[in-house]
Amino acid sequence: MNHFASWLLWPTVAVAIGYALAILVGYSGGVPILDKLLDRFAGFTEERSRRLFDRDENGGTLAGVFALIFTFICIFLIPIALIFLLYWWTPIAGVIVEALLCWQFISTRLVRTTAIRIFHAIKRKDMRSARRVASSFEDGMDNADEESIIDASVNYNAETTPAASVAPILYMLIGGAALGAFYRTLKMLSLRLSFDENDADIGRPVAAAEFALDFIPARLSALLMLVGGFILGFDVKNARQTLNTDRKKGGANIGWPRACLAGLLNIRLNGSGAIGAVGEPTRPIENEDIMRSMRLHMETSIVTVIGFSLVRLGLFFASVL
Description:
Blueprint: H1 3-24, H2 33-52, H3 59-89, H4 91-105, H5 108-123, H6 127-134, H7 146-193, H8 204-232, H9 236-246, H10 255-265, H11 288-320
Helix pairs in contact: 1-4, 1-7, 1-11, 2-3, 2-7, 3-4, 3-7, 3-8, 4-7, 5-6, 5-7, 5-11, 6-7, 7-8, 7-10, 7-11, 8-9, 8-10, 8-11, 9-10
């Protein structure tokens, strides 16, 4: 087997195993262990970047560029070299280590668990519990009514489809667990740097890189959601129409999965703040929409991992025949 064929085969197996572990097992405590470590790294990178560069005319921008390059070297280049050495030593060792790493970067089950908890809390009229869970991903839920919590939950299922499922799977199938780790860390670093009101420049390089990495997954998510929606029997025709009219509302990237989901379920998603509403409703939003959107998220992740794994395996067989 040549090196190209090996690169096509073994990482694909690792991602498939990692996805299965993420879906079937989940994480201890509900949060991936590596997420905590990567968040600490993001905090360390932010601190060092600010210390190294004074906040003069270009200091903020230089600090942001340094943070981006430092993260790329430490989280992508070094790990991918180590994983390559493992595959060179023995493919089995490489698959095992990379599968365990991939397991940590796919948050599909976490989204599913959150949706189920809110759904059942609302079903038994336990608004206190529903608000508490919704507050983990949305601000201003302390006194939210039932409809607002449902809207926030469905929005969450739509917005996390690219970030929690499609993008990690796609990038890990391209660059292995190392690229998945870089994508996750970049998200954390962007959150830390983008809210600095005293120095907006520091967050711009990282935000630009994040936008670039989200550009294709956001649009790909909408396409794959149409496939998942067709499998689940949702309104694909209406989703296509909603995408044409509302896909740019609330942001160049995040509007795509939100508009697609609203169209598939024939509902209106109001969102919060500057996100904006999408969809032309034919019925009011209801508690069952939380479960429908969650199933669509799950189906989209399955279509993603199967579809792109088959592409890689097709290239593998073409290279060895």
